Amino acid sequence: MPEKIYITYNQVHKLCQQSADRILNDFRPNLMIAIGGGGFVPARILRSFLKRPGEPNIPIQAIGLSLYEDLGRDDPEEVPGTKVKRTQWLDLSSLEMSNLIGKNILIVDEVDDTRTTLEYAVRELEKDVREAQKALGREDEKTKFSIFVLHNKDKPKKGKLPEDMLAEGRYHAAITTGDVWICYPWEAKDIDEHDELAKQNKLL
Ligand code: 5GP
User: Fold this and answer.
1) What is the CATH number of domain 9-177?
2) What is the pLDDT, as a whole number, of residue 67?
3) 113 included as an active-site residue
4) Which end of the chain is less enclosed by CB atoms within 10 A, N or C?
5) Other CB atoms closer than 10 Å to residue 7's CB: what's the count?
């Protein structure tokens, strides 16, 4: 069983805060796409730190992807699946897709484990935007994706991300961990117990 690391809401908040300036350095997101459920809370917190005075809030869209099959057990570790299941996706109407074309889009998730989910998200989003650009005759506009995760596990990855995304520094992980199991506060049934367990962790 992997070592369990407990993360508090406070730590999540500070990881988002610490990462915002790095993200903004060479990429100003116009739109965020949060991968649910783990990407929702980090995306909302991060938005507060990405906002610049006088500029509007960055809109957050949601997609739902699931790789792990819930076997109905009580322990937080779940058995990894091999296929990504779409539970929610973007509205692909031309009206909605035109909001993505030519934009800087930040994809947010909580953890990059095998990278299967992120590979799927980037590949499918790029494909849908490309198709919309073609349909709307806007192929000359450059749509750029970047990624933010709270934790990246330092391990061999099954999924691949585009070379240019990595080369141009459009992948951001607040923390790089070993191959541990991370327990996030939004999964806790008893948040006081969770916070107590977090105190016993080495600080992440
Ligand atoms: P990947 O596709 O990178 O293998 O896994 C991505 C998804 O698996 C995450 O979005 C998350 O739902 C789940 N996952 C993988 N590792 C962890 C972990 O250490 N803790 C939690 N809570 N979920 C994890």
Assistant:
1) 3.40.50.2020
2) 84
3) yes
4) N
5) 23
